[in-house]
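Q: Got a minute? One more chain.
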Amino acid sequence: MQNMITDKTKKKIFVLGSGGTIAGLAASPVDFMGYTAGAAGVDSLLNRVPEIDELAELETEDFCGIASENATPEVWLNLARRAEQILSADDVDGLVVTSGTDTLEEMAYFLNLVLDTAKPVVVVGAMRPLSAYGTDGPVNLYNAVAVAANPQSEGKGVLVVMNDTIISARGVNKQDSCRLNTMGGGDFGTLGYVVAGNVHFSAAPCQRHTHNSEFRLTEIRDLPPVDIFYMSAGVDARLLSAMADLGACGVVLAGFGNGTFSDSVGDQLHDLIDEGLVCVITSRCQTGLVRVTMPGLVAGGDLSPQKARVLLMLALAVGKTTEEIERCFIEY
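A: Always. Here it is, folded:
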């Protein structure tokens, strides 16, 4: 009788697979890098941790099986549309999305901005393929399902769970190329921890997201091209104009320090702004704010260049003016 009661009270969590290292397979268990990303399906991953069935009732789907470096904005858009379909079902209580880690932070932030739901959404990845000794994928997935099934996760936007840590989609960043603790939260992104399926929250995101966002998938046909210009000493400023000539609708500048750039880059930015191109200033530093030193330039706040690009693409996709885009970078 006790088991029947437990089964009835289980949350239903949908696990949507999109490939990546977490589903990667190699010929040797000591090959941590020469694997094929996304070669295994979600069910193969679940079979490695059968205890996960004790956490929730699970339903699975393999949406795609790609390496995340090949996950284009079009893939994000299609994934978000499928995710919203899944979350609209009354019997689904939460969603877990498996992903490669190379562009996980961008995809998670995109979902954070467009999914119209207060249900828990958790993005999870791994640094070692499923075939490797010491693979972190199964335990990361176990913890991700635990977080998605926990009532405390509701209304907190899209979360990322890896290496026993719960991080907001806005704050998460990949900070190491190979170690298991690659995902960090910066100054404000770490929201809590999950150990052996036990969830502990100590913070919540302050910015607008998911059900409080103004970006709705029904209003977005596609995402306009936006490029990132990375400042380095003596960089050729003409590359900025080349981005515009190749069709960029906006540019994100990864500036020095608090958003500084050379005089030659400033001249190019001035011309692009006059031509109507939206230009956002960010920093190539890991943390900290930027300042605006040129009229018409939009401050990216503390967003990384890659996340500023995501927000700018969405703002341009729905026809925001420069003034409205400035507001978006404050609120999101």
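A: The first strand starts at residue 12 and ends at 19.
Q: Perfect, thanks.
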